Amino acid sequence: MNTADRPVAEAPSHIRLSLVRPAFTLAVDLQLPARGITVLFGASGSGKTTLLRCVAGLERAPGAFVRVAGEVWQDETQRVFLPTWRRPLGYVFQEASLLEHLDVRGNLEYGLKRVPKGLAPGAQAAALDAAIALLGIETLLARRTHQLSGGERQRVGIARALALQPRMLLLDEPLAALDHARRQEILPWLERLRDELRIPMLYVTHAADEVARLADTLVVLERGQVQAVGPVAQVLADTDTPVVLGEDLGALLEGAVQEIDAHWHLARVRFAGGSLWLRDSGLAVGQAVRLRVLARDISLASTEPQHTSIQNLLPCVVQSVQPDAHPSQALVRLLCGESVLLARITARAAAALQLAPGRGVWAQIKSVALVK
To answer: N or C: lower Cβ tally within 10 Å for the chain?
Structure first.
């Protein structure tokens, strides 16, 4: 997606604000990457949407500082506060809120009324065409909005936001109103946004699969306070403030398909620490993928296992052993090459294996989930 005549500044964003709410006080000071998806993750009422609204200028936090792509949107110490209509942003809500009396093209062109004045009409048209192509909605342009599925409506809504040539894209739980099938339909398009857009995106969710598939950077909020922030794999592997997605704690691995075993319908994925076999679901050699390995799906051995049904065995080094939430359990952080895995085992097993930082072990991985 090209932002046409508006140059994209490869500068990090800085968001610092404090806002008192009846149930919590939102207090954040975040330095965020210049591109990619930053996911705001946490339970309902943790302040995710409030943070998004403050960035958009829909709510005004006293003393706040908001700088995006090198441009200051709010700095109360300098009496700077750009209203929402002057902030070059795109905002995608849970519902696309399309105008029912217009077809898809009419909705997209209506959204261009917010494009800042002074941009050449040709640049506006180019931005709209690029958004249409990026979201794959060329065949939907003549349809009335009631003829669209929920996933198609959201793709149109995102294209409408991108046609504004924003410096930042804000997405407030864009999949929350969709059923499982429609969610799976639109997730690949969101991955494409992450991989191809040259602007930062702030994405609100409390869904584990969206974090695992989409996040580059993860911000974990609890009652308005930042509990953890950083690259998603790093945050998920942090045992000091463990982040649980879905059923269990786990690690995220980035890799690429290295081999397909057509006879056994398996694919081997190479990552920075070894390789793992998993079920082939139509993958292609060279394809970039993300894998999630749950802590409960890893067992440990002090010597290399022999004659086992477990296909994925990795030599690792223990980094730390910590008590888990229940006293019977221990959480072991493992360094496997350049990658980190987490293993949940019984405290008795950890004692019997004499696990300690620096100890070499073999990780036996019973299950690997493909999340991309």
So the answer is: C
pLDDT band at 10 (very low <50, low <70, confident <90, very high): confident
Q: Average per-residue pLDDT in the chain?
A: 90
Q: Return all residues near 94 (Cβ < 8 A) that are at least 6 apart.
A: 172, 173, 174, 176, 177
Q: Which of left, alpha, beta for 307 (phi over 0: left; psi -120 to 50: alpha)? A: left
Residue pLDDT, tens place only, 266-312? 999 999 999 999 999 999 999 999 999 999 999 999 999 999 999 99
Tell me the β-bridge partners of 91: 170
Residue 266 backbone class (left: φ over 0; alpha: ψ -120 to 50; beta: rest): beta
Beta strand pairing call for 312-323 and 360-365: antiparallel
Domains of the chain: 13-236 (3.40.50.300), 250-370 (2.40.50.100)
DSSP label at 7?
Answer: P
Question: CA torsion angle for 271, 274, 279, 282 (degrees, to 10)?
Answer: 40
Please return the burial class of 204, using the count of CB atoms within 10 Å of its CB with bins 0-12, 13-18 and 19+.
Answer: buried
Q: Which residue carries 């890893």 as its tokens?
A: 298
Collect all residues with Cβ–Cβ distance below 8 Å to 352 and sequence separation of at least 6: none
Structure tokens belonging to residue 184: 């799976």
CA atoms lying within 13 Å on the CB side of residue 309 = 2
